[in-house]
Amino acid sequence: MPKTYENPRYPYRRSSDQDGARAHHRVIIVGAGLVGLAAAVDLAVHGIATVVLDDDDTVSFGSRAICFAKRSLEILDRLGIGAELLEKGVTWNRGKVFFRDRMIYDFDLLPEGGHRWPAFINLQQYYAEEWLVEKAEASGLVDLRWKNRVIGVSEDGDGAALEVETPDGPYQLSCDYLLAADGARSSVRKLLGLSFDGQVFHDRFLIADVVMKADFPSERWFWFDPPFHPGQSALLHRQPDNVWRIDLQLGWDADPEEEKRPEKVVPRLRAMLGEGIDFDLEWLSVYTFQCRRLEKFRHGPVFFIGDSAHQVSPFGARGGNGGLQDSDNLCWKLAAVLNGQAPDRLLDSYDLERVPAADENILNSTRSTDFITPKNDISRVFRDATLELAENHPFARSLVNSGRLSQPAMLSSSPLVTAAKPDTSVALSAGSPCPDAPLSRGGEKVWLLQLLTGDFAGISYQTSATRPSHGDELAKLWSSSVALPVLTVTDKELGPDTQADTFWDAEGVFAKRFGARAGSFYLIRPDQHLAAHWPALSAEAVAAALKKSLALEDPCLNT
């Protein structure tokens, strides 16, 4: 099979930790995949050093997770690889749904303007991992140890103890906190004897990465019961390097090893693509849907992130994107605790915020699988009737489920956020991810999320009518014990003497998306979620909400 990507090989290096008594580190991460590397880079951004252990010596083989959702792009941009993703990746917002021999409708996931990022970028996972390795190494705070396999894990007082196997033999480590990012077959999870419960769906799917030059648009195409693969489903996605991802439903009785043989795969793809298109196979895999998770994601000093904590079917692109949100949620809290800004109980909120998000992903993934693979004849009749209706009746399209595509988690029920009073009229609820918006300063366009770089921040919306009184409250806030940078967004173009942290809402997008009006104030968490908002700034209210966000005065977080 031809290769459009050559996996880098990272050398095993003996660590000084192998030469003496058990060494101790504040944070150890097991797994140098997408999520583990993102966590290491994120902690480095917050000034926290980590040791990353991985039993391999390269990034992932095969394209694996290829759909990076808008929220993941925002996270990865904050970690420093957004430009690479945008330059290399295939951007898309649109998709088409086919039933049998015809298209029944198309959709646009991002129909409005004023967005820096598309709804999705398709990119082979190994590229993102390689760029994160480079960021980790450049940080000077990440000790990447390849060919270091964890063979023992236990709690040790207030931390965790590990036994690690290397080409030079075993050695021991300990840490204050351990992050398990070692995937669906997590060795850490197994070594701790934790149950990974859920549902296995009785169906198999073929993944084929195909190298070909085709003039198909950069869209998501999904077929139900197509003529080239009757009774089953199919999916087509474009990736960089003239690589196309094709998923074909096979049925539960399919033999995984037999179906991966090129002589079985090529005729299936030829029927789909037509005789006039030349292609080569680059990567093949046969998988079975599984939806399952740990009961809890925190176990004392051990935290599970990504597939080690939860597993979903690939339809909807909720696996890798959900894992990046895990890391994004946990790392700022871990940094706050290690830097002495918050008590350990803040880390209990990782479970409280990410377990419901995982349940939502599992629910959507399960429903997608049930729709794509009906379990009996009656279910198939209802599904096919829905598809027939969807062709001419828009109301039925919301019932078609070819994979509910990844969405950011809403944290409105989190004990860390401060809900607005019922009579407060706002467009954005506390706990929502902060929407991006184009702003202007000195004739140059900037993006709001580029200004929110990993710390708590305030956003003040001012008009000519609010500046004098609002300025008094800002002065009171800055003179208090709360160390909070504040960005000011105005409804008027800026003069030459305007302060450096003031920006003009030139297109009115900020005011619309935030429901901003004269005097509005917003408290943003380090993970760019909205912690609280007020129709008018109160320094005392902001200070109280910040303390709540750090669990400084909320012992109810203990689980």
Describe the structure.
- There is one protein chain.
- The chain is α/β, with parallel strands linked by helices.
- The chain folds into 2 domains: 343 residues, FAD/NAD(P)-binding domain (3-Layer(bba) Sandwich); 120 residues, Glutaredoxin (3-Layer(aba) Sandwich), CATH 3.40.30.120.
- Helix content is 28%, strand content 28%.
- It contains 13 helices and 26 strands.
- Strands 1, 2, 8, 9, 10, 11, 17 and 18 form an 8-stranded mixed beta sheet that branches. Strands 6-5-13-14-15-12-16-19 form an 8-stranded mixed beta sheet.
- A hairpin with a 2-residue loop joins β20 and β21.
- α1 runs parallel beside α8, α8 packs antiparallel against α9 and α11 crosses α13.
- The chain is globular and about 75 Å long.
- The termini are far apart.
- 45% of the residues are buried.
- Mean pLDDT figure: 90
Classified by CATH, the class of the largest domain is: Alpha Beta
Largest sheet: 8 strands, mixed
Query: Structural class of the helix and strand makeup?
Result: alpha/beta
Low-pLDDT windows of residues: none
* DSSP summary: helix tally: 13
CATH fold title of the largest domain? FAD/NAD(P)-binding domain
